[in-house]
Amino acid sequence: xxxxxxxxxxxxxxxxxxxxxxxxxxxxxxxxxxxxxxxxxxxxxxxxxxxxxxxxxxxxxxxxxxxxxxxxxxxxxxxxxxxxxxxxxxxxxxxxxxxxxxxxxxxxxxxxx
Length: 113
Fold this sequence. Notes:
The protein has helices at residues 28-37, 88-96, and strands spanning 5-9, 15-19, 22-26, 41-50, 56-68, 74-79, 82-87, 101-106. It is α+β, with helices and mostly antiparallel strands. It has an eight-stranded antiparallel β-sheet.
């Protein structure tokens, strides 16, 4: 079973997703597409490394996606390390900066509440 994660508000309106040792990000322009238009958006990861010559190289890769659930009352986050769900109201509060963070709940396939 996957471990719970955290959604937090970042600089410039970006959202940060922390799950296990993995750190992901949702860009502000993508966030608007999800919240206002219900579009599926990418979840990105920064991969920074230092070359043998001492040069810092940063790469951004898409490592998952976020989408509204069928009822429109929650956001589902799918990453390499697992799938999570967060109530829409909690997601919106973090996105607006009203809350610093909110927990993510593991989304277990085949289990309905």
